[in-house]
Write a structure and sequence with these properties.
The complex is a heterodimer of chains A (135) and B (139). By secondary structure, chain A is an all-alpha fold. Helices cover 79% and strands 0% of the residues of chain A. The longest helix of chain A is centred in the N-terminal third of the chain and has 31 residues, at 2-32. In chain B, helix 1 (3-37) packs parallel to helix 4 (72-81). The chains are: A mainly alpha (135), B mainly alpha (139).
């Protein structure tokens, strides 16, 4: 047990700088990208899932912070498919994940994951588009 | 960078770190326990033999386990070292798309509705599982 705790502390010390940088980068982006950017995108083209998914991929921070805006968009008539595309992409990838994921799994895994995450978000949005009248 | 921006960013970073560090430490302990006690070839054999069950199961575990953001990484890395394939790792990490935190899920249901959440759950499960199989082929 002591060996596990000791190894875990050593590992935490090793990974801490990466974690700090990852969180710092996500906070900097979060500070400079206004949350109403999502609002703008949804107004530009309601059918543009790709744009919603793309914005979701680069949007930092917890989803909780964006839920009130998404609710407002829903109330104002934004399609659920677009909201789903944003939420799916936002939760799958985020700026802070880049550094951690590169450290743990390498660049190739991360690149594949970003590409697949984008397509997963599009697929979920398409599913929503087909099922929208039942939701 | 203006002083106000530096102050806000530093404060928010410290706040998030205060939440993340203990969680990350627990995740590292779990990861190291897996590395130390799980027989290396057991998981490799099990997951490769039953890959068609293992990937959907990993997606479901990723979705259902309320592991906070980023804390999945040390655990997933330990599983990778133990011989689990990249498809399962992908499914486990992506499962965080739902169920990362119970509070978030409740808020999502409150703001966007139960049907929205249920449909997102089902669609995410299907497409993340397919993504897991794709990664398994690619890597």
């Amino acid at each position: 047990m002591m060996e596990i705790i000791h190894t875990s502390i050593v590992e935490l010390i090793k990974i801490s700088p990466i974690l700090i940088i990852a969180i710092l980068i996500s906070q900097i982006i979060s500070y400079y990208i206004p949350k109403n950017k999502i609002k703008k995108v949804s107004k530009q083209n309601e059918k543009n899932f790709a744009k919603a998914a793309g914005i979701g991929l680069i949007t930092p921070g917890p989803l909780l912070a964006y839920l009130p805006i998404l609710k407002t968009l829903k109330t104002k008539g934004a399609p659920l498919s677009m909201i789903a595309a944003f939420i799916t992409a936002q939760t799958l990838i985020g700026p802070a994940r880049v550094i951690l994921e590169l450290k743990y799994f390498g660049p190739l895994f991360f690149i594949y994951r970003v590409i697949l995450a984008f397509f997963i978000a599009l697929a979920v949005a398409t599913g929503f588009k087909l099922m929208e009248k039942y939701v | 960078m203006p002083t106000k921006a530096i102050q806000t960013i530093t404060r928010n970073t410290l706040k998030e770190l205060a939440i993340m560090l203990p969680v990350f430490f627990i995740a590292i302990i779990i990861g190291i326990t897996i590395e130390m006690y799980l027989p290396k070839h057991l998981l490799e054999t099990l997951t490769q033999k039953h890959i068609f069950i293992a990937i959907p199961l990993a997606t479901l575990l990723g979705i259902l386990l309320p592991i906070p953001r980023y804390a999945t990484y040390p655990i997933a890395f330990a599983l990778l070292v133990a011989g689990v394939g990249y498809g399962i790792i992908f499914a486990l990490i992506c499962g965080e798309v739902i169920g990362e935190s119970i509070v978030r899920d409740i808020m999502e249901i409150k703001y966007l509705g139960g049907k929205f959440f249920a449909l997102r759950f089902v669609l995410s499960f299907i497409f993340i599982t397919l993504g897991g199989f794709t990664i398994e082929i690619l890597l």
